[in-house]
């Protein structure tokens, strides 16, 4: 029986592509032919070493089960209580939406919207979109709109922060231990299980196999074969990675429908604008209090650095290190790292190109973990409302700090690391040109 005669369910396994693929590296821009690889293997760029794609060892049905389990656990987490606290004969309960509701009461509606989006809307959208695509892939001819749905689910991945949220819950739990009696409820255990299944599902999902199964349909853009001699004008899609020859000024990917660009438009100027704005907001984020603890009518506002000092005074050294790294070190390193890469693009500096490309992917991945402090503060504000006995109020510093995190995440997404390689190549080409000899 040939592959064409095999049942659809048998083809939905993690098998390597039958033929080599043409890929454009998202890190350095090199167009290269990638050979077929087997399950559990990954293909790396020949120039910068960045992973181009990997083949999972799990069938797609395995991903369906994990994604469905994640959706069920997320529903349980949203519908149940995370924890309850008790002091002075008063008991308060907090669920997933209690923190955002408290932020709205404090006049911080935009911060509440961000918290709900990254903890509920983005994860739910990613999970539901992925499950819908995986289920419809079993059809003999998957509908064309699945490409757009899967592309949207993939674009929501950086903004799905369940694994960051659980760290915020842990920090809040530890900080409240000395103030009130706190008990974990069903929602927290569902959150723990959800974190495991989401990470597992993300690692097991064979995205390359899904895109191959979805295929392409736009006749105006021409997908290219590795054996094609002339690759002038070829562009790789930033979403599904298909390399095609776009036709027209506003070309779209023939597979997922995303806009095609040789390089991200106005990448340098837009990234500069975002990191300058983030650097300016970082000042009020550290100057204004992120929360205020009032106990028996006495208390003082606490900044990010002040919170770290309080944890050190309480001998909570691992927690102090976590908050210091996520809230102070990471934002500063992101701003410095992006600034270094932008300067390298504008000067054409060619040293350490591979290292700077790896640095870009580290910066892009690590920035989301700074949201730990925001999640912790929203939970503390919802859990500790005991009138004159003890109250914790989120401060305006948290709004500025959240803006810093979001702006640096956008900056990392907008920056195009391929420009560093382009600029270095242009500078080497200019230096290689023979200097003009003055006429006598």
Automatic annotation (TrEMBL):
Chief location category: membrane
Q: How does the entry describe its membrane topology?
A: Multi-pass membrane protein
Task: Say which domain of life the source belongs to.
Answer: Bacteria
On whether Lipid biosynthesis is a keyword of this UniProt record, the answer is no
Q: Where in the cell is it found?
A: Cell inner membrane
Q: Which family does it belong to?
A: Belongs to the PqiA family.
* NCBIfam families (alphabetical): pqiA_fam (TIGR00155)
Q: What is this protein called?
A: Paraquat-inducible protein A
Tell me the organism. Dongia soli
């Amino acid at each position: 029986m040939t592959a064409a005669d095999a049942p659809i369910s048998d083809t939905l396994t993690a098998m390597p592509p039958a033929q080599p693929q043409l890929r454009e590296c998202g890190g350095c821009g090199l167009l290269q032919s990638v050979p077929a690889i087997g399950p559990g293997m990954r293909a790396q760029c020949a120039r910068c070493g960045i992973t181009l794609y990997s083949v999972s060892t799990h069938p797609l049905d395995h991903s369906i089960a994990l994604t469905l389990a994640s959706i069920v656990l997320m529903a349980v987490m949203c519908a149940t209580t995370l924890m309850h606290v008790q002091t002075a004969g008063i008991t308060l309960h907090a669920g997933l939406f209690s923190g955002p509701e408290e932020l709205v009461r404090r006049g911080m509606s935009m911060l509440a919207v961000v918290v709900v989006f990254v903890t509920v809307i983005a994860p739910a959208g990613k999970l539901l979109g992925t499950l819908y695509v995986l289920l419809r892939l079993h059809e003999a001819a998957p509908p064309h709109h699945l490409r757009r749905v899967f592309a949207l689910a993939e674009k929501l991945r950086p903004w799905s922060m369940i694994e960051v949220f659980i760290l915020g819950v842990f920090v809040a739990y530890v900080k409240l231990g000395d103030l009130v009696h706190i008990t974990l409820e069903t929602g927290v255990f569902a959150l723990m299980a959800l974190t495991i299944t989401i990470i597992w599902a993300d690692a097991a999902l064979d995205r390359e196999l899904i895109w191959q199964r979805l295929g392409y349909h736009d006749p105006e853009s021409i997908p290219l074969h590795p054996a094609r001699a002339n690759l002038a004008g070829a562009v790789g899609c930033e979403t599904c990675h298909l390399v095609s020859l776009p036709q027209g000024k506003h070309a779209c990917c023939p597979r997922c429908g995303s806009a095609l660009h040789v390089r991200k438009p106005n990448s340098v100027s837009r990234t500069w604008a975002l990191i300058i704005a983030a650097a300016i907001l970082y000042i009020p984020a550290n100057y204004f209090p992120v929360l205020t603890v009032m106990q028996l009518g006495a208390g003082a506002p606490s900044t990010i650095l002040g919170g770290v000092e309080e944890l050190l005074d309480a001998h909570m050294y691992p927690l102090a290190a976590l908050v210091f790294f996520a809230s102070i070190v990471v934002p500063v390193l992101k701003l410095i790292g992006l600034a270094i890469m932008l300067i390298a693009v504008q000067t054409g500096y060619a040293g350490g190109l591979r290292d700077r490309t790896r640095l870009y992917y580290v910066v892009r991945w690590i920035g989301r973990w700074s949201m730990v402090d925001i999640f912790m503060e929203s939970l503390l504000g919802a859990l500790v409302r005991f009138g004159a006995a003890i109250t914790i109020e989120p401060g305006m510093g948290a709004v500025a700090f959240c803006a810093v995190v979001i702006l640096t995440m956008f900056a990392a997404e907008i920056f195009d690391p391929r420009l560093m390689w382009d600029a270095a190549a242009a500078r080497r080409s200019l230096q290689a040109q023979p200097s003009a000899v003055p006429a006598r």
